[in-house]
Write a structure and sequence with these properties.
Number of strands: 14
Distance between the termini: 49 Å
CATH topology of the largest domain: Aspartate Aminotransferase, domain 2
CATH architecture of the largest domain: 3-Layer(aba) Sandwich
Strand order of the largest sheet: 2-8-7-6-5
CATH superfamily of the largest domain: Type I PLP-dependent aspartate aminotransferase-like (Major domain)
Order of helices and strands: HEHHEHEHEHEHEHHEEHHHEHHEEHEHEE
Structural class: alpha/beta
Number of helices: 16
Strand content: 5-15%
Number of domains: 2
Length: 454
């Protein structure tokens, strides 16, 4: 059929508070023009992130009721562990309260001052956890991944030639190689199975462990099935297992591709490293069979991992984003092509060429979207990545605005509303002004910085 319907029925709803433009203008100013600081009930359509914002299924809520809250050895942990190993067969599955906690565990143990950790593109918390250890987070995307308008099936890929050069020249500084699937900061773009295998082989040839940030593994796998030669007729689960079979470990936020509202894990094959990770976990998160989570959360994740690989869901998920991207493109609003798995990314630098990168065109666009229609989106550009560890600032490779779609939350009418609001913003785009930062923390400033308009 031409219409890809939501492959679920809605059983429970929550109200949306409708606001006026005048209200939103006042609320945004009071928040220092930082959309992270808005109250969520002042937002009509919340596309700030797809992390922890999913609608859980009836089966997940049922699983919540089976959660065992024993401090140690709860059945909930073993159901969680089995569900993870069914897809990613690592020796050690170490729960954490979310993905950044898993990253903190890993980089605390493997990184030190002066180290260098290459990836296709590190996202914000990954980069922050690496830099907090005094190490450098190095991005090595393919050239096509830096061109938003270019249509390429796997723009999330790592530049393997560049990785090999870095491993040869800087191998003494490199404790591990990372791969993010999908490549969030690069526009939610997928990584091919061949590229995952290629990066893993290079890491292994140079004696380096290879880790995957697997937050959106199912969406990435769906793109592999759709686009990669020899993968079309294979079950999603088999492709998922192949992606992780070449890795030495992974970090995961279950708040993405596990439909959970909280949770994550660090998976490892190295016995000694896993023992050190569990010791650190006890100090910072909790006992190794709960890792900062309630038993009910572990059971919700276990059920979510069964649901996320459903092909009807993945077809709907990817089509929902491409629907919005196609309509925006038809209106002349520049978007990252092709549409990513979890979000639509607008090329704010191209959309607002009169605003220089150091005046944050992406932030200007997110503010305009909220004022026009109560939509909350996220800047992925110079605000997020422009400040360097030494305190200097430079334009990011791209200035994007991410419209991250919460899983199983919004319908097509909500998508149509988003398009209409952006049509209104586009009609007045030449009047939008750049912004300056008037207050910021030393790291990951986009979460808490305050802005003013020029």
């Amino acid at each position: 059929m031409k219409t890809i319907i939501e492959p679920f029925r809605i059983k429970s709803v929550e109200p949306i508070r409708m606001t006026t433009r005048a209200e939103r203008e006042g609320l945004l100013k009071a928040a220092g023009y930082n959309l992270f600081k808005l109250h969520s009930d002042d937002v009509i359509i919340d596309l700030l992130t797809d992390s922890g914002t999913s609608a859980m299924s009836a089966a997940q809520w049922g699983a919540v009721m089976t959660g065992d809250e024993s401090y140690a050895g709860a059945p909930s942990f073993y159901r969680f562990e089995a569900a993870v190993k069914d897809l990613m067969d690592f020796a050690h599955i170490i729960p954490a309260h979310q993905g950044r906690a898993a990253e903190h565990l890993l980089f605390t143990l493997i990184a030190k001052t002066g180290d260098l950790i290459p990836s296709n593109t590190h996202f914000d918390t990954t980069r922050g956890n690496i830099e907090a250890m005094g190490a450098e987070a190095l991005d090595l995307p393919i050239a096509e991944g830096r061109v938003p308008s270019l249509d390429h099936p796997f723009k999330g890929n790592m530049d393997l030639a560049a990785l090999e050069r870095v491993l040869k020249a800087e191998g003494h500084r490199i404790p591990a190689v990372m791969m993010t699937i999908t490549n969030n900061a690069g526009g939610g773009q997928p990584v091919s199975l061949a590229n995952i295998r290629g990066a893993a082989a290079l890491a292994r040839a140079h004696g380096k462990p290879f880790y995957i940030d697997g937050c959106r593994f199912a969406e990435n796998t769906w793109f592999i099935k759709l686009r990669e030669e020899g993968q079309t007729d294979r079950p999603i689960k088999d492709i998922v297992r192949d992606c992780f079979a070449v890795a030495d470990g992974m970090t995961m936020s279950a708040k993405k591709d596990a439909f959970a509202n909280i949770g994550g894990w660090l998976a490892l094959n190295d016995d000694a490293l896993a023992e050190r990770a569990r010791t650190l976990l006890i100090q910072t998160e909790g006992f190794p069979t709960y890792g900062g989570l309630a038993g009910r959360d572990l059971d919700a994740i276990a059920q979510g991992l069964k649901e996320i690989i459903n092909e009807d869901y993945l077809l709907y998920r990817v089509r929902s984003n491409s629907y919005i991207a196609e309509r925006l493109d038809a209106m002349g609003i520049p978007v990252v092509k092709p549409a990513g798995g979890h979000a639509v990314f607008i090329d704010a630098r191209s959309f607002l060429p009169h605003i220089p990168p150091l005046e944050y065109p992406g932030q200007a666009l997110t503010c305009a979207m909220y004022e026009a229609g109560g939509i909350r989106a996220c800047e992925i550009g110079t605000v997020m990545f422009g400040r360097k560890p030494d305190g200097t600032e430079a334009p990011a490779a791209m200035d994007l605005v991410r419209l991250a779609m919460p899983r199983r939350v919004y319908t097509q009418s909500h998508a149509d509303y988003v398009v209409e609001v952006l049509e209104e913003v586009a009609a007045a785009k030449d009047t939008l002004r750049g912004m300056s930062i008037v207050k910021e923390p030393p790291m990951m400033r986009h979460f808490t910085a305050a802005f003013e308009r020029f």
